[in-house]
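User: tokens in, sequence out, please.
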């Protein structure tokens, strides 16, 4: 009995000593499905790293962005790993707020990260965030309605084709809109779509001296085209529709086409949720023959703040969560269709993933069509495809988005919306010191 007690005591002491030695890291993340799934699978990480404990802070997107921005800007030190987007990475890296990810391990294979995604997360050739999942945007369309209109969707259509098809597919009596596009105001809502679209029309937010360009004909062409198309072929109340509203409309069979995030493909093709799941086709976002397509680029990524005292443990976790092995782990538990998309070339070469995701090739082609380092037809001093990677853009993008949403709703003219966008953007850029 004494021997048994002694052994139990020694075991308890060993466990206590291990717990005492364990290093705890705090991870701030967004409350979407992929991140929730990751938390459920972290036993795999802790079994391989028993000396590291994980603490989670899981937040809604807007709250997460606010808290991690405040923490990193004030050097608060609350988090050791942060989930941030492609917008934040170049800004924060240049401020010296992020650690370069140069210790992810010999087996990590950073070269396997899709180049367009890696480019948006790198500064001066160094990776400052590792992508957990990535996306572009493309056209999702009803094959049956396209055929009924007597048309065939090209793999790489022009805006002219899309506009013509949208008007021909519109059937107001049957409550079918030829096209559903974002109209809800916000830098990540309508301005994500409109900025990417403007790129394909030859427009840009700023010239090389940071002078706003909303008074130029390219923006006039972009906004005129968009408002007229939505009036002719879009849904009622489009100025209130964002990603979720258009997703619901498409799944209900009320959209002939929808141009939005590639991640939506798994939703519109899921027969449990979509009434048109067996009728969906995919094509690249449109262009105007100027060398840029109207698609964006985004990644939710894991980064390490420069103020952490636990950089080694944090990098081990980031390496695990964004590795090829993690993708295989998700596939083994949830099936290949649920693997986080858009990050690694090898995933798109995997026959099992190709079979589970018929939209895989078009997703990869869309991601590769975006270039965050050269997003526009004319030269610009910024990076970012559907955003401008400067701190002021969140506020500016939302303000301009409100003006453009008002133009779509008929509350002001296109000319007035552009004039006010030019005025407010010039004022703010002058105040911030960009314009001398």
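Assistant: Sequence out:
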């Amino acid at each position: 009995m004494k021997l048994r007690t002694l052994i139990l005591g020694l075991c308890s002491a060993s466990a206590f000593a291990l717990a005492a030695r364990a290093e705890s890291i705090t991870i701030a993340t967004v409350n979407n499905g992929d991140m929730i799934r990751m938390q459920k699978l972290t036993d795999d990480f802790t079994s391989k790293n028993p000396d590291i404990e994980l603490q989670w802070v899981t937040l809604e997107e807007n709250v997460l962005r606010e808290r991690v921005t405040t923490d990193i800007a004030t050097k608060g030190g609350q988090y050791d790993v942060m989930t941030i987007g492609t917008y934040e990475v170049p800004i924060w890296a240049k401020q010296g707020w992020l650690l370069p990810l140069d210790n992810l391990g010999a087996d990590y294979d950073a070269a396997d990260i899709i180049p367009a995604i890696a480019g948006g997360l790198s500064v001066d050739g160094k990776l400052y965030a590792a992508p957990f999942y990535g996306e572009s945007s493309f056209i999702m369309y009803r094959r049956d309605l396209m055929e009924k209109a007597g048309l065939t969707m090209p793999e790489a259509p022009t805006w002219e084709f899309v506009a013509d098809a949208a008007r021909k597919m519109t059937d107001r009596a049957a409550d079918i809109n030829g096209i559903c596009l974002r109209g809800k105001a916000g830098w990540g809502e309508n301005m994500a779509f409109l900025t990417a679209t403007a790129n394909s029309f030859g427009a840009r937010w700023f010239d090389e001296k940071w002078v706003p360009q909303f008074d130029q004909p390219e923006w006039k062409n972009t906004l005129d085209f968009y408002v007229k198309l939505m009036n002719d072929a879009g849904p009622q109340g489009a100025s209130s529709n964002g990603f979720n509203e258009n997703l619901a409309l498409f799944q209900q069979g009320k959209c002939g086409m929808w141009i939005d995030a590639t991640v939506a493909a798994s939703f519109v093709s899921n027969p449990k949720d979509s009434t048109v799941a067996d009728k969906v086709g995919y094509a690249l976002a449109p262009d105007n023959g100027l060398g840029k397509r109207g698609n964006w680029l985004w990644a939710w990524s894991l980064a390490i703040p420069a103020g952490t005292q636990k950089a080694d443990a944090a990098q081990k976790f980031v390496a695990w969560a964004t590795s090829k092995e993690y993708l295989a782990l998700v596939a083994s538990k949830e099936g290949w269709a649920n693997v986080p998309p858009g990050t690694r070339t090898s995933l798109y070469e995997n026959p099992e993933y190709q079979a589970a995701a018929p939209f895989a090739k078009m997703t990869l082609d869309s991601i590769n069509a975006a270039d965050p380092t050269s997003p526009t037809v004319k030269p610009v001093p910024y990076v970012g495809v559907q955003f401008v990677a400067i701190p002021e853009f969140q506020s500016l993008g939302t303000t301009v988005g409100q003006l453009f949403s008002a133009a779509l709703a008929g509350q002001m003219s296109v000319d007035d919306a552009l004039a006010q966008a030019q005025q407010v953007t010039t004022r703010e850029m002058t105040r911030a010191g960009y314009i001398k």
